[in-house]
Amino acid sequence: MMQTAVAQKSVDASSEGHPKGLAVLFTTEMWERFNFYGMRALLTLFLVNALAFSEADSSYVYGGFLGLCYLTPMLGGYISDRYLGNRNCILLGGFVMGIGQLLMVLSATIYATNVETAKLIVWLALLVIIMGNGFFKPNISSMVGQLYPKNDSRLDAAFTIFYMGINVGAFLGMLICPILGDVKVDNVRMVGAFKWGFLAAGLAMFLGSILFYFLKDKYVITPDGKAIGGKPDFSKPAANLAEGEADKAKFSSGAIFGVLGLMVALFFIIHYLSLDPNPIKSWLYPFIYAAGISLAVLILTDKSITKVERQRILVIYFVAFFVIFFWACFEQAGSSLTFVADYQTDRRLLGWDMPPSFVQNANSIFIIVFALPFSWLWMKLQKRNLEPISPVKQSIGLALLALGFFIIALQVKNLGAGQKLGVIWLIVMYLFHTLGELCLSPIGLSLVSKLAPHRFSSLLMGVWFLANAAGYALAGTLGALLPPTQDKFELAAKNNINLQGILDGTITATAQQLEQLKELKLAAHYPTFAGFTIHNLYEFFMVFVILPGAAAVLLFLSTGFLKKWMHGVR
């Protein structure tokens, strides 16, 4: 089996450079993220403006799409570890995602003449992109870890650099795709332009896959020239594994059937608890949660797992649970925060009225600016034995995310009728979100590479992304809590409806008014969460202060036993 040598002791190689293969993986991931984030920036706007989705329904679709994109890496990781290898899965996933973007182009081309067919094509396109992402995502992240010995001190820095590649691609995607696809003339959105944004995303994905195909054999190799990420070969002795480490998982048929039963039971329990008229929320989200929990349990049933491996895997699971709350709040960028930027924000900055889908690009710009300084910071702290362990870094990331939302909550608290939020405050919020992301996401990828047994390297990377999947599904639910903004009240008033009075209960809506509100895609009641009613943007944003803030405190208080179970890995 093609494997990377595993160091038994921490390797102090911080003074050395990084393998050239890191640049190839950086570039490949950059173009894939251009594709993914460029399309993501346009998705909800396309659904609302071209396919007549409501904002709430588009948020559910957005959350379900992202959730499945981070659930399928479990399948892609398993197929890679057992059958195809990282390289083949990356190429397969890349070309499949490119085809999915071309289907989005087709939908955005025909929507005006046949909206129902366009909707069907969008569902197919999203499914194709989800499957392609499942093959691509866990394998390229896993290969970064395989470029280095197991406990190499350069890993956190390497993943931070790799993460900069992710965000260079995200920046380019969220710059170019909205410029091409989110076009307004005289303040009227030109819906027919969406196809050009989707086309740019698809071309970027094909470019990244082609570059990887031609460069992988020369650069994505071990120091002695052996290919990294080839097809697994279990017929060869695995002499380069750590002492006592198995090269292949051993799942009994009883464990597999038991986990399948668990998944079915969890699905129906969660479905029952989340009954909702929206089929995505009531059927798809429970599937994402149930599949994630069940597949994580399956790994622990491996008969070859040692006590140390089990405890290290449990650390991954424990930290991943808290990461759910980070992504559930962070990923409001593509749904509720995009709508706030569109309707409730004065987007003029230095004379430029930026597209609403571009505002979230502040995150990518800040990542590019701060990624290398953060990489340098971790290496300097490591040299002085002051570097905090990974869970501490991630608790800091959650706290910074909460702080960013708290700043924006204070800014919207006293907005009067007709007043809009200054775009600079959204940019400041994204600054804190970015600093939090750099403390959490690349560090998490590095943590999985350091803690995962080799036979589960891609599969456990998929499990890590399950936290993203659950977070994104929750992001869709939380994004739908966005209360009516000023533009909604104005739209209702134009149709002779006092929406404020109906929402506050001072006016009883007639059957005709309720039907009108439905046609206008306006809710006749305030959204609620955990028994609390969300009346305004301040209360909405405070949800995103409390959730990650509480998670930050709990994760920090848990670092004592996590450090013990990591058995020397930092």
List the helices and strands and how they pair.
Layout: H1 21-49, H2 55-69, H3 73-110, H4 115-146, H5 155-181, E1 184-185, E2 188-189, H6 194-219, H7 253-273, H8 279-300, H9 307-330, H10 336-343, E3 345-346, E4 348-349, E5 352-353, H11 356-359, H12 362-383, H13 390-413, E6 421-422, H14 423-451, H15 457-479, H16 486-494, H17 499-504, H18 511-519, E7 528-529, E8 532-533, H19 537-557, H20 559-565
Parallel strand pairs: 3-6
Antiparallel strand pairs: 1-2, 4-5, 7-8
Helix pairs in contact: 1-2, 1-3, 1-4, 1-5, 1-6, 2-4, 2-8, 2-15, 3-4, 3-6, 3-15, 4-14, 4-15, 5-6, 5-12, 5-14, 7-8, 8-15, 9-13, 9-14, 9-15, 9-19, 12-14, 13-14, 13-19, 14-15
Task: Give an overview in words.
With 570 residues, this protein is an all-alpha fold. The chain has 20 helices and eight strands. The strands form four sheets. It has a two-stranded antiparallel ribbon. A two-stranded parallel ribbon has the order 3-6. Strands 4-5 form a two-stranded antiparallel sheet. Strand 4 and strand 5 form a beta hairpin. Helix 2 (55-69) runs parallel beside helix 8. The chain is globular and about 75 Å long. The two termini are 28 Å apart. Mean pLDDT is 85; it is low at 1-15.
